[in-house]
């Protein structure tokens, strides 16, 4: 398939549906935004509170219009609730690379296997539809939960970018851990291993 940033993309299995993030999704994510501000503890761009959530979604959509990112909203089919958001970013279709991140879920959806289903669908789309050669992941080097989740799907650690960005708390800066999955790794082992972990 030929990919366009204006495309309506739906990725779905028996547990989750991912679709394009839209401005109207403020209402779908507002409960998490208001009640769980710690969700963005390690994020440079937070969506805590209605005003920040509106800005967050508008910024993501603008980046999509500028052909830099492709944001999704995540819907949990078992609970019949919107769970959070994730996106492709730093997309370089010519070089066949992208980053997968800006991922967050409400607390009730964490540890349920939902994230593995999301990552399987997103990685399958990246490697098998978009033809990517490399998918990169980054996180605050102190964000142990996020790092463990990335390792559990098969990401390989590449290293640490020291003091590479602000951490959102005043003048403090963060170190970022860089992980990745390569195309051959996806087809050789990670796809099968991750599929076997899906609940």
Describe this structure in words.
It contains 5 helices and 8 strands, in the order ββααβββαβαββα. 33% of the residues lie in helices and 32% in strands. Strands 1-2-3-4-5-6-8-7 form an 8-stranded mixed beta sheet, sandwiched between helices. A hairpin with a 6-residue loop joins strand 7 and strand 8. It is globular. Helix 1 (26-35) crosses helix 2 and helix 3 packs antiparallel against helix 5 (183-197). The model has no long low-confidence stretch (mean pLDDT 93). With 199 residues, the chain is an alpha+beta fold.
List the helices and strands and how they pair.
Layout: E1 10-12, E2 16-20, H1 26-35, H2 50-65, E3 70-76, E4 81-92, E5 97-105, H3 114-129, E6 134-140, H4 144-152, E7 156-166, E8 173-182, H5 183-197
Parallel strand pairs: 5-6
Antiparallel strand pairs: 1-2, 2-3, 3-4, 4-5, 6-8, 7-8
Helix pairs in contact: 1-2, 3-5
